[in-house]
Structures are given as C-alpha cells and as structure tokens.
Amino acid sequence: MTDELRGIGASLTDSWPAFDNGVEEPQPLPAAPLPAVRPSVALLTDRYELTMLQAALADGTAHRHCVFEVFTRRLPPGRRYGVLAGTGRVLEALPHFVFEDAELAYLEENGIVDRRTLDYLANYRFSGTIQGYVEGEVFFPGSPVLQVEGTFAEAVLLETLILSILNYDSAVASAASRMTSAAGGRPVLEMGSRRASEQAAVAAARAAVIGGFAGTSNLEAGMRYGLDTIGTAAHSFTLLHDTERDAFASQVASLGPGTTLLVDTYDVRHGVATAVEVAGTGLGAVRLDSGDLGGLAQEVRKQLDELGARDTKIVVTSDLDEYAIASLAAAPVDVYGVGTSVVTGSGAPTCGMVYKLVARADSSGVLQPVAKASANKASVGGRKAAARRYGRDGHAVEEIMVTGPDTAVAEWTPQSDDLRPLLAPMVVDGAVDSRWVGPYGVANAAINHGMVRAELPRGARRLSDGDPAIPTVDLRLDDLLD
Amino acid sequence: MTDELRGIGASLTDSWPAFDNGVEEPQPLPAAPLPAVRPSVALLTDRYELTMLQAALADGTAHRHCVFEVFTRRLPPGRRYGVLAGTGRVLEALPHFVFEDAELAYLEENGIVDRRTLDYLANYRFSGTIQGYVEGEVFFPGSPVLQVEGTFAEAVLLETLILSILNYDSAVASAASRMTSAAGGRPVLEMGSRRASEQAAVAAARAAVIGGFAGTSNLEAGMRYGLDTIGTAAHSFTLLHDTERDAFASQVASLGPGTTLLVDTYDVRHGVATAVEVAGTGLGAVRLDSGDLGGLAQEVRKQLDELGARDTKIVVTSDLDEYAIASLAAAPVDVYGVGTSVVTGSGAPTCGMVYKLVARADSSGVLQPVAKASANKASVGGRKAAARRYGRDGHAVEEIMVTGPDTAVAEWTPQSDDLRPLLAPMVVDGAVDSRWVGPYGVANAAINHGMVRAELPRGARRLSDGDPAIPTVDLRLDDLLD
C-alpha cells in the first residue's frame, strides 16, 4: 500500500472505527432502533412536487382544476402488450398520504418548503377523482391507465407515488403474463422475493398472481392479499442434517409425504431414490433446482415411474424465464417456480409510465388541453376517453383514444356494440371504492387479466419480438359520432 | 365480440361491478384503510424458511450452531467489481424481525406452521453474531460480504430479508459507482424514484449516494438517511401556467434566482432566453430533459454565455446511464440527473447474492464444513476469512478467501503488511453495532466506497466489458502461514 492508502487499511484494521468523515459532527448513536418502514407514504415523493406546490400556492395556480393521465409512450422493445398492476395498491396507499408531525418537521427543519406550504400539507387529503383501467387489464402505448382529476395542488403531489407503484407492479405483471402464457396450463409459482427489494417483493408477488401465477413464497403477500403461499425446504436443510436421508425423513415427518423434496443437493438419481424410499410412492413432488432441467426431468420422471411414484410431481426452479419455460413445454414438468426473472420484469424492470398534465383550467376556470413539445416526448393534449374495439370474431382489434371537448369526452360512453369502455371509477371526491383493494381486488384483477388476455389476437402471446398486439388509434369525438 | 366475450364487456360496462370470481364469497369491504406497510418485517420471508424451522425444531437440529455466508458466484456480465450496499438497512431491520400477534395469527390460521414453531417464533430475537464487509466496500465473486452465525433456527429465518436488501441495494450501488466514475468530478443526482417500487426507491436513493451520487430527489430517503435532496419543477408546472414566462417568474419568485429552470417544454432557445430575462444572469441552472443532450448543451452554453449568464449551470436529465454520461464528457454539462438506469441497476437489477450454509455443528457440537454438489452451483464449504492483497504501488491485486480449521479461520487476522482484512463485526450476541446504521452509517459507507474504489487497478473503472478487476484466490490457512 502507498502511505496514503495504508492509512485506510490501518484505520479499518484498527478495531473498525467509524470513519472520520470530516463533514459533520459525529452523530449520537440512535437510542431506539430506527424504524424499518414508516406508516405515512407522503414523503415517498420527489422533492420537486413540493417546490412546485409552493410556487403554485404563491401565485394562485395551485387551485386550478387539472387532469393528469398516466400512460406509457411505448412498450418495452418487442413486447406485444403490457399488464396493468398496482392500482389497488395506489388506492390502499391513498389514505396514508398524510403529512403528520414527523414529515412536517423534516420539511420545515430542512427548509424544503415555506410556512404556507406546510400549512397546506398539514391539511392535505386527496379530495379529487380517479378513474382508470381495471387492474389486470392489458395496455398499449398511450393507454390512459389512470386519470387523476382535482386541483393542481392535490393531484401533483401524488405523481411520484403513483408512478412508483404502477411502473414496478406493471413491469412484474407484464413479465408474469408472458410466463403463464408460455407455461400453458401448468402452474407457475413466484419465489423471487430474495431478488427484489424487501417491500417490492410483496408487490411483486401480488403482481405475479395478477399475471396468472398460482401462488408465491412470500408470506407477507400471502397475509396482505390472501394469496396462496408455497415452499418446503432449501439446500441448507439437507446440509444441516448428517445425511440427505435424515433431512428427507425429518421433512416428511413434519410436513407429511405430500411434501416436495429437493433432490439435487448431492446426486439427483440417488436423491430421488432416497426420497421415494423415505416418503413412499405417495410423495407429493420432487424439486430440481440446477442442471439441464429438461433432460433431468425426463430421467427423473422415468425413475419415479419405475419406482411406482407415478403421481409424484416434478417442480423445476432454476433461473427460469418465459423462454426457458417455453423450452420445457415437451418435458415432463408439472410446476414451474420462477424467481429473479419475474421480479425484475424479465429484462424490463420498470414500465416507463409517465404522469402528465393533459388539461387544466385557465384563469376563467375553463379546462384547456395542454401538452409539451419537447423532442421525442411530445404528447397529445386533452383528457382522453378509452375503449377497445372488437372484431366479429370476438378478438380485440384497436385501442381507441377519444379526444374532443372536455365535458363531452368526460361523459362519453360508447354507443357501438363493438366498443368496450376501459375507464372505471376508482376514487370519487376522495372516497376510495373498496371493490378494487385488498384480497378481493387482487382476485378480481387476476380473473380480469385472464379474460382480457384471451381476447387479444393470437399473435399477442408469441414470445418473439413484435409490435403491439393491437394499434392505438386516436379519434376525435366528432369522428366517432359520425 | 362473441357471445362469450360479450358477457365480459357487458359485465364491465354495467357500472363496473366486482367480478363474480366464483371462488370465494364476496368479502366484506374493509372498514378501515388497509395499511400501506406494516412495522414488522418478519413475514418478508419465504415460506420455506418457516417450514424448515418446523421440521428442524421437531428433529432437534434447529439448535445446531451454524455459519451462513452471503456471496455472489459471479458478477453481472462484463462488470469488473460490485459495490456492497444495504448492510446498514439489514441492521436497522433486525430489531423489527419480530413475530407479534398479527403475524402469529396469520401463520396459525393458515396452517403454515405448528404450535411448537409458533411458540418459538413468538419469542424470536436474533441473538447471534454477524460480521461483514463494511458497506461501500467493493466485492468480487465469492467475497463473503456477510457472515451470519447462530443456531440454524435463528439464522435461517433471516435469509430472505437479508438477500432482498443486499441484492437490490448492491445492484443500485454497483451501477451508481460506474456512473459517478464516468462522470469524473461532475455531480450526479438520483431522481429515479418513479421507476422503482415505492419503498425500494428509498433504498435506491441511499445506495446511489453510497455509490458516489451527490443527492436524491427522494424526500423519504432525505429524511431517514440525512441525504441532500434536490428538485425544483417539472413540465407540468410550465403547462399549468398560461405562459412559460409566467411559470418561470413564479418559480423564481418562490425559490429565488438560484433555482433550476426547466427550459425544454416548448422551444429550448426561446426557453433559455426567457429564463435569463426572468431570473437575470444570476440564474442558478437550466435543465434539459429531452433531445440530443450533447449538441443542445453546446448551444445552450453558448447562448447563456452570450446572455452574460456565465455562471448558470446546465443540468441534463434524460434517460442517462453510465455510457451516456461518458459520452457527454466533452459537453459543457455541469450536473447529471439519473433516473431509471440507476434504480434498475443499469441492466443488472439484482445481484444474485446467495445465503449459504457453509458450516454447522455435528451431533457432538463440532462445526463441520458443508457444501452442496449441485451442477453449476457447487460452493466451497467452511467458514471463510477474507482479505485484500495490495501490490507495491498501493493498488489491490487479489481478493483472498481463507479457509481452514474453523476456530483458526474465525480468529485469523493477517500478519502481512500487504493484506487488509475485510470482515468487520456488525452484530455481537444479538446487539447491533450502531456505527453502521442511520445517516452516519451512510456517510461512512460513501466515504469508504470512494477510498476502496481508488485502490482498484486502473482498468477496474473501464465501462467496457471485462473480467473482475482482481481475481478471487482461495487459500488454505496453512498456505498463508508458510
């Protein structure tokens, strides 16, 4: 080490003191444990939402009536549809978007906003209206998956939280849908908690189930959303015991012969033989978590059948994604367990949804469409209504965005039999419609997804790269009424 | 629509009822809002940790003394080093890993574990020992970044939570370090909250700062970890106003001329001219969020200088990653704002760290090394000590993993001047060392990262694909003592 660097090593070696960071005084060590999470979600927010609020409160525009829309400009490369998830979580979070003493003190002490803004925040409750696509619905470029209407002040504050939730949850649900599609009728289980941030893992489990997964390993998600949970043992359990046989015997004694035994800690063939010896031919399943899963599944199926364990299922769980699942279609696999790839959106870990002001009242209170003109980021101004058009064979053919005079668009419902409207009320005058939240909301979202996916053109379910399954079509209200 | 599909549309159209999901009775609507998060982190856990516990409690092995190690088998493709982040958050979470009435009731009512296990969980507090690399440290394949020692029961329960935190936080810190490296001395700001799950966004901001970022837009992260927060206004603020000039005037009146004005809502050249007219030549900065940032920055710098605003900085913020930052090295950019790419790990959204049992007591209480033999997932058994070896020029040359008799490895400290030990005590007999948590822990981690990155061979900071910057070398204790 150079002398300069040696100092570092020395300071680290020397009973691992805290560094002299030279910036601030050493802080007192916390007396009580720091919280792992805090109940208010109000500061899960970009600072600029609050500085914009401050300026708008000062100039009076904060109270202008506004319409914000959440949409994505494009799907991830090659994807044919997206799956909306997270709406229920947005609605669950809304009552917790409150600025209480701790939040206000932080904002004040750090000079983030002024007194007038603090007073506004202290009384903040969202009192506007939210409409959106029903959770589990598919979406395409431009689909207004959520519409938030209220004063600028109350609506702009929600931007970061809404996007955080919808972007991640929808990324997971979109990946999950491809996986359950690739799996055909075989169940797919979510077991990726360890590859997602700890609270994101709960959202991921929920979103995966909306995308068609049959269950999750995540207990918190099971508790909060009534999801089926799964899981029996890891390699560490086998290694803990003196022999693989001891481990299997212990697991069967504890969980019954219907359990799933992990047979690849040492030698798979030996593991399968021991598993059936210990559990009998009524063994529920064996799990393979390494190696060439297709070839291995063939061998294990043959071995199980020869041992008389014809009903013992084969679960595979090693680094699967939609392509690996598809490649195992001909293998004797009964259940897929997916981890990393589903919780990270299988190559598209966020959706790129944006929260854009599309209309706001002018100084005389009349709603005017607005849109920026930035390069590559231009968007269509004005509130949108949305509907999906169906062909004679019952399949979706177009995603229709309707624009026009604001009141007419807001009140529009399709008169034509081939159009299905896509925006449903979620929050009215600040009151959350509880049909869309909790376990019931998730169950409905999963059913909804199964139905709407079945309506897509056949090509939508191909895994290969392609264009969006149906085009997004902008229509003026006048054109529709013709 | 076919008749079958028509029913769906009809049911959705018909005042958007909840679906008849045919599976469960309609549940009562929640009387009180569902919580957005819950204080206990104990169920952020894969179910199999609890079922393993149940079986091990029944057969007596639950109380065997164990050593688990967290490490990654490989870095993401092409990466030359990883950056450890999340350790402080693990330590902060530990006191909240408690099973209280709500958790126990869920586990009991859903038959997840038996009575004996419930009783164990009700009294659960981690009472073991944790050592690890200091947060901000770099790591390589095999580096034992965390070592957890205790009974099987107490240590296995923490697996999922520890991996969730370390895998995500380290993915972000690793990406962040490449970005700050590419930026040279220019500040890089984290503004990706909307592209990460809402609580993950807080962790991401923290990890980005450990990787060298100068601040974050995330207020919760600012509050919890004492980070500098940044942000002024979005396009919606300009669109809210009747003219861009009105918006700029309002912002300057509220935040002062030192603020950053977003000048690309309509026409950049016009926006810059208006910005300087409104704020004067003392304008703090202009922000460019679209278009060809390099070319635009040249033009804007020229325009600002001609207007006399020579000290007005240029902030760029559109879809930057380490490569885009590097490509702007010659452009007159003062500050980079990074969103999506840092919070999603710039192509590597999780680290692939695993939590492996490496040693456990046998039936006579003697610690024995253990390792599985699974294809492609074999690992070295036994507790490891770790040290980094330095060459004469002060740069790191090897990551050394020391194995041997357990007690000797546990007590090993390098006697040689060219070796720096890497494992520091974090938790002793269940007591968290508070030097590593809270704002102080983050500040230290960021400083630590700057120091250890400077020690890496020069090639480590290349963005192009390559091998790990230094090799991981396994040594037996006997070899070292020679």
TrEMBL record, chains A, B:
- Domain of life of the native organism: Bacteria
Show the coiled coil region(s).
Answer: none
Task: Tell me which positions the record assigns to the signal sequence.
Answer: none
Name of one Pfam family that matches: NAPRTase_N
Name its pathway: Cofactor biosynthesis; NAD(+) biosynthesis; nicotinate D-ribonucleotide from nicotinate: step 1/1
GO MF: glycosyltransferase activity; nicotinate phosphoribosyltransferase activity
Swiss-Prot/TrEMBL keywords: Glycosyltransferase, Ligase, Phosphoprotein, Pyridine nucleotide biosynthesis, Transferase
InterPro entries cross-referenced by the UniProt entry: Aldolase_TIM, NAPRTase_N, Nic_PRibTrfase-Fam, Nic_PRibTrfase_pncB, Nicotinate_pribotase-like_C
**What is the E.C. number?**
6.3.4.21
Q: Which family does it belong to?
A: Belongs to the NAPRTase family.
Entry-linked NCBIfam families: NAPRTase_put, PRK09243.1-5, PRK12484.1
Q: In its UniProt entry, what is this protein called?
A: Nicotinate phosphoribosyltransferase
**What is the species of this protein?**
Promicromonospora vindobonensis
Q: What is the lineage of its organism?
A: Bacteria, Bacillati, Actinomycetota, Actinomycetes, Micrococcales
